[in-house]
Structures are given as C-alpha cells and as structure tokens.
Amino acid sequence: MDIHFIEKFFPKYIEASILVVKVGGLGIIFSILTGFILSLVIYYKIPFFRRLTAAAIELSRNTPLIVILFFLYFGLTKIGIQMTSQTSAIIGLSFLGSGYMAETFRAGLESVSKSQIESAFALGFKKPQVLRYIILPDCLANSIPPLCSNIIFLLKETSVFSVVALADLIFVANDLIGIYYKTEEALLMLVICYLVILLPILILATVLERRLRYAKFGN
User: Fold this and answer.
1) CATH code for the domain in which residue 178 is found
2) Which of helix, strand or coil describes residue 13?
3) What Rg do the C-alpha atoms of the chain give, in angstroms?
C-alpha cells in the first residue's frame, strides 16, 4: 500500500466527492419535487394527466441511468440540443429518481386513513386544508424510510456519471489506475469517499425511522 500515493491524490477524490454531492444533491431535490407532483396527480386521479403520469413513472423506473445519460448527452445533439455534462447528469438523475419518488409518495398518500379524511370534511375542512393538515403530515411521516432509501440509491447511481465525461469518483479512480496502475490505493480511496457520503445519510435515515416508529406506537 503506497501511502504517499494516497496522500498525493486524495485531494482529487475530495474534489470529485464535492462534485458528486453537488450534482447528485440537485438531481435528488428535483426528483423529490417532481415525484411529489406526479404522486398527487395519481392520487387525485386527474383525468388525462393520470395516464401520462403513469407512463412517465414506468418509463423512468425501467430505464437505466446510463441509457438516459447517453440520450441526453449524445442523442439530443442530433437535433441541435447540447447539454453540459453536469446538466445532463442532473436532468438524468432527476428523471430516474422522479419515478421512484412518485411511487414512494403515492404509497404514503394512500396509507392515510380514509376515516381521518372523512372526519376532516365532516368538521368543515376544505380540500386544500385536508391536504395540508391531514394528508401531508401522515404521508411524509410514512414516506421517510423509503424516501431515504431512494436517496441512497440515487447517490450510488452517480457512479455512472463518468460516461458523460463528468469527473466523478469513478472517473478519478479509473484515471489514476490507467496512469499509475495503483489499483488497490485508488479503489481504497474510492470506497472511503463513498462511505463518507453515504453513511451519514444511512445513520440519519435509521434515526428518523426509529423516532417515527416510537412516535406512532409509543414503544
């Protein structure tokens, strides 16, 4: 194990980690917002848009991210649309994640007791008030565990960003291995960086899940 090699090139991994968090974070935020809107369309069974939404969700969930990135970065140039690597990565991750987020929120919305909703209407609540004060709090509480799982999944999917020439962690690792043949050192730094990115989210998700479970069941 070449410690000097690690000391010399670990800053490159830090830069790549910051890029992954930045691009991945934006993609995840957009996917959460888009997925929530799509879930409302499905939940309220809005005519016409419901079928389009269902089709978009299935397309996003069944298309590999690498295919989406190739389409955005290389395919769209055929019709005169050019995107930077970061833009393609953000849009691609957002599209992939929106389907998973939509299904997560849809399940959360449908988990809200019908009796609660009917009681709210009986008390004179309007539809927006029922959504804000009754449905959303329960939906978000029930959606936290799968939502965190989706976030971790999407962050791991950032490992394919290198196919569109984005200098992510995999790009840096492959570059160093190809030049210096220091496979063990390069992969060790790669694993450490992914652990630093993913472990805090995993710990936070576990804490939130426990707190929600205790709040619900009083254990």
Assistant:
1) 1.10.3720.10
2) helix
3) 21
pLDDT tens string 154-190: 998 988 888 887 888 888 898 888 888 888 989 999 9
Q: Of 72, 117, 77, 123, which Cα lies nearest the Cα of 93?
A: 72
Q: Is the pLDDT of residue 217 over 50?
A: no
Residues of the domain holding 22:
3-217
Report d(CA 82, CA 100) in Å as an integer.
27
Task: For tokens 């936290």, name the residue.
Answer: 144
CA nearest neighbour of 147 among 195, 204, 194: 204
Return d(Cα 178, Cα 182) in angstroms, integer. Answer: 8
Mean pLDDT of the 20-36 span? 93
pTM of the model: 0.86
Judge residue 20's burial from the number of C-beta atoms within 10 Å of its C-beta, 0-12 exposed, 13-18 middle, 19 or more buried. Answer: buried
Distances (CA, A) of 103 to 5, 28, 51, 110, 151: 45, 15, 14, 10, 14
- The token duo for 7 is 């000391």
Residue that is written with structure tokens 């055929």 in the block: 78
- Alpha helix locations (H) across the chain? 3-43, 49-61, 65-70, 85-110, 114-122, 127-130, 136-157, 169-180, 183-217
Q: Give the CA distances from residue 158 to residues 64, 125, 133, 175, 192, in Å, rounded to whole numbers and listed in that order.
A: 12, 43, 36, 17, 16
Q: How many domains does the chain have?
A: 1
